[in-house]
Amino acid sequence: MDRTAVSAATESFRARDHAKEAMIARMAGGLSPASLRAALADWLIHLAAAPGKQLELASLCAQNAQRITECMVHSSYCNQMTSSGRASSTSICWASAHR
Question: Is 65 in the same domain as 83?
Fold first, then answer.
């Protein structure tokens, strides 16, 4: 293989590496992935030592799960109403659910 072909292949490989690094930078907001991992580990260590915060987060999780379940049930009900012709649109169901 001549030098031109090797150089072109090398540039292609470097371009792929550059594209990967740019994608990581966009996803990490320009921060180093290593520093993000260190910050996450620090946060997890502090959370592990804070049972009150764990209970607070578990409570919020349960509340959000309940809200999602209620929305899913309501959405299912509205879909049944509109498909059976008993309601003219889902906006009626939406408005009645969010008074």
Answer: yes
